[in-house]
Amino acid sequence: MSALIEVENLTKTYTISERREGTWGALQGLIQRQTRKAPALRGVSFSLQPGEMVGYIGPNGAGKSTTIKILSGILVPDSGTCQALGCTPWRDRRRYVQQIGVVFGQRTQLWWDLPVRESFSLLREIYQIDDHAFRSAMQELQSLLQLEALLNTPVRQLSLGQRMRCDLAASLLHSPKLLFLDEPTIGLDAVSKLVVREFIRTLNRQRGVTVILTTHDMDDIEALCSRVIVIAEGKILLDGPLQQLRSAAGTERRLLIEMEKPGETPADEEARLVSCEGNRICLAFDPERTPAAALIARIAKKYAFRDLLVQEPSIEEVIARLYGTYPE
Amino acid sequence: MNSTFRAAKAVAGARGRLLMQYRSAALFGIATQMFWGMVRAAVFTAFYQAGRHTASLTLPQTIAYIWLVQATLAMMPWRTDPEIQEMVRSGAISYEALRPADLYSIWYARALAGHAIPTLMRGIPLLLAAFLLFHLLPPHGAAACALWLFSLFCTLLLAAAFTTLLNVSLLYTLAGDGVQRLMPALANAFSGMLIPLALLPRSLCLLLRLLPFAGLIDTPMRCYLGQISEGSALTALMLPIVWAAALIFAGRMLLLHALQKMMIQGG
Questions:
Q1: Contact by Cβ (8 Å): A119, A155
Q2: What is the DSSP string of B120-180?
Q3: Where would I find the beta strands (DSSP E) of A19-91?
Q4: Edge-to-edge strand list for the sheet holding A53-57
Q5: Are A99 and A85 a contacting pair, CB within 8 Å?
Q6: CB-side exposure of B173: number of CA atoms within 13 Å?
Q7: A105: which chain B residues are within 8 Å (Cβ-Cβ)?
Q8: Structural domain contains residue B267
């Protein structure tokens, strides 16, 4: 199958104007501006197959949003190529954006003073969606995102979670094949997050929409993405299945134990003590050197405990470790 | 082109319906404009009674001029569109760039609605009141009336071109405070809004009539008062249209350039 998106060696450097410190600096700035080059992308390449759902993750300022903006055609890179849906996004902008949907979680595309329904019918005109397609898209989105009660409300009166559901619907009215979600769950409460996640999953699994998702919420990634691309300082650190991300940062697992008696600390030569709070103990071990079952058996022989749990490291930890090992 | 037209029409319609919601704004707008109209009429009456007679405009003509200015104040391209300003500030402008439509046309359509709807909502009641209460001089014959209405349409095209250019300038300046101060000063003085251009020294008057601002107030006024004969109407009305075309061209070029090098910061 041919790739849906093919990105080759994208670079982008921002020029940031700076003011020198103090009054004298401000005066100097009147004569000569000082600028600084801030590289945002330093050669990013990857490709995506139709129907994939990819998590694009990295710390703040890593280049995630820059990549999304270039891929959606609103930012022109300094160099590199990108082919998506047979277009170069920033060159064939109008033909290209007709086929994609974009949600920037921190911004809204809905008209602030208008009821949601009016924003939708405006988008319908802008995207030239025909009657039948519009009605069926609306019907599907309404039921999946529970929009009925919101449609006649002016956008300014919506809560953040409600607004995000409407924003998601707005970006999908024209049935795009490719969807960019830039932090779609930012600031949402737990229930709204679940609704949004469930919706994204349905889109991908049932409608076959290809999704690129950036997020700082690792639960999003674990719930949705089979493949992750990790970016830091404008370069791709890792591109592969979620499992590969875990093993790249080491295979260590955690054993959480609730002891019978507080103060007792089990020791084992194959395990490292991570934390100890009252009768809750956390041990780290390497399952390749000692299987969990063997470790538990050894501890059970020597100590009395109420409960235990084996945990995989959270993705946050994995990524923090990965960033830590990234050479400067 | 047809698709852009449809999209622009929809945007203008939505914008217009939104502006029609602001009934109390229109009501207070009318009241304020009535008040200032009376003050300005009183000032000019005092001038004329002090013996400063001028051949170019009689007192009733000047007073008619004042009421027409008050009625079409919403045509003046004084400021940028607050919504576009907010989009530029917040970065929601990225969504505007994501639409499969010609952005300039969409913004121009917004500006058309932004000038036309408030002008209709405030202008018609204000003119009616001026006729009934202040004996507003009617148009100088049917031909003058037709010419005046057509000229107002040209003013609308010109005003929207000005406003859209101001909006595009936001992509360069971000804040737009400078243009917001400069533009009213230029427009008020050079369009004939403060003092009818006809009352200025002859050479200055002729010079200002060549600038784009004259099309905002001076040209429709001269049509209303019958100072433009049918023979010279073509040249007089061509000028605002040519200026509108030039401003549209400049706005388009600037917008194209801005979108090429636009940076949207943050998250």
A1: yes
A2: HHHHHHHHHHHHHHH-PPPPSHHHHHHHHHHHHHHHHHHHHHHHHHHHHHHHHHSS-HHHH
A3: 34-48, 53-57, 79-84
A4: A100-104, A178-182, A210-214, A53-57, A227-232, A235-241
A5: yes
A6: 15
A7: 267
A8: no
Q: What is the pTM of this model?
A: 0.82
What are the residues whose beta carbons fall under 8 Å from the beta carbon of B129, sequence distance 6 or more?
A: B30, B34
Does A95 sit within 8 Å of B100, measured CB to CB?
yes
| B85/B162 Cα distance (integer angstroms) | 15
Q: Please report, as a single letter, which amino acid is at residue A87.
A: C
Q: Please name the residues in contact with A177: beta carbons below 8 A apart, sequence gap of 6 or more.
A: A4, A50, A85, A99, A100, A209, A210
B203: containing domain = 2-261
Amino acid identity at A286: D
SS3 content of chain A, % helix, strand, coil (to 5): 35, 30, 35
Helices (H) and strands (E) in chain B, counts: 11, 0
B266 belongs to a structural domain: no
- Contact residues, B window 206-265, toward A, CB-based 8 Å cutoff: 259-264
Residues 6+ apart with CB under 8 A from A22: none
Q: Do B98 and A102 touch (CB under 8 A)?
A: yes
Which amino acid, one-letter code, is at B118? P
Q: Which residues of A touch B259 (CB under 8 A)?
A: 74
| Chain A interface mutation, best of B99, B110, B171, B255, highest count of A Cβ atoms under 10 Å | B99
CA atoms within 13 A on the CB side of A315: 22
- The edge-to-edge listing of strands for the beta sheet with A34-48 is A34-48, A5-18, A79-84
Whether B90 maps to a domain, the answer reads yes
Residue B99 belongs to a domain? yes
Judge: B83–A112 Cβ closer than 8 Å, yes or no: yes
d(CA A54, CA A52): 6
CA B46 – CA A262 distance, rounded (Å) = 97
CB-count burial class (<10 Å; 0-12, 13-18, 19+) for B114: buried
Distance of CA B150 to the CA centre of its chain: 14
Task: Confirm if B90 and A107 have CB atoms less than 8 A apart.
Answer: yes
Domain count, chain B: 1
Beta strand residue intervals within A184-279, DSSP E: 210-214, 227-232, 235-241, 253-259, 271-277
> Which of helix, strand or coil describes residue A251?
coil
Residue B223: count of CB within 10 angstroms of its CB? 26
User: How does A272-299 read in b/e, with b if 16+ C-beta sit within 10 Å?
Assistant: eeeebeebebbbbbeeeeeeeeebbebb
Residue by residue, pLDDT tens for chain B (267 residues) are 577 788 888 888 888 888 887 778 888 888 888 898 889 888 888 888 887 666 678 888 888 999 999 999 999 999 888 888 888 888 888 888 888 888 999 999 999 999 999 999 889 999 999 988 888 888 888 888 999 999 999 999 999 999 999 999 998 887 778 888 888 899 999 998 888 888 888 899 989 999 999 999 999 999 999 888 777 888 888 999 999 999 999 999 999 888 887 665 554
Query: Taking a C-beta distance cutoff of 8 angstroms, is the pair A231, A58 a contact?
Result: yes
Closest residue on chain B to A117 (Cα): B14
- How far the first Cα of chain B sits from its last, in Å, is 34
d(CA A252, CA A275): 15
Question: Pick from B11, B261, B263: which is nearest to A122 by CB?
Answer: B11
